[in-house]
Each structure stands twice: as C-alpha cells, then as structure tokens.
Amino acid sequence: MMRSSSTSFTSKRCRAPQEKVILKVTNLEDEGIDVYKMGTHVHLKKLMLAYCQRRNLDHRTLRFIFNGSFLRPRQTPAQLMMEDDDIIHTVMEQASNAGPNDDA
C-alpha cells in the first residue's frame, strides 16, 4: 500500500524568499513515501523531526540516508546539493546510546 503525504516549512530567520526543494522520505519496511517542501538552507533536523512525529517514531532510533551517506541534523539540502524529488531513505537504528542524529 502506497501512502503519500506532504509538509512544508521554512526557516523563521530568513525574511526574504529563498529557494525551495521537494524531498521524498521513504522507509523500505512500509513502502510509504512522505513528501516535504523545505528551504535549501534549512537544517534537515526539521525534516527529520517532522517525519518522526508524523510516523510516531523516536528520532533517536532512526537513521536518514542520502546517496549512501548518513545525514546529520545540521546539514542542509544546499550543502548536499539536493534537488527536487531526491529520495532520503530511513532505517531503524539497531541499538546505541547516541548517534549521528544527535546535535553536535
């Protein structure tokens, strides 16, 4: 069953319009796709927290992967040169006390 939903958010600090990117977040276990529209200079932490809240998951137990690399909350789509319709995959963390999704 394919599920799709959409969320949009931007940084409150930026008053001028900024470039936006549409990103898709998917989990191989349930085959659902969530779609997010966000500013290219907004930290990915907002997307990560929104995804976990929507899916009723603890953000500390989930890893986000883009182009084979784990994402960090303070990275931005601009830093990673993300484009519209790029896909971020999620996987459940096995067991750890702290991981790369914690703020550094």
From TrEMBL:
Location of the Ubiquitin-like domain: 19-97
Lineage top rank: taxon: Eukaryota
Pfam families noted in UniProt: Rad60-SLD
PANTHER family: SMALL UBIQUITIN-RELATED MODIFIER
Protein name in the entry: Ubiquitin-like domain-containing protein
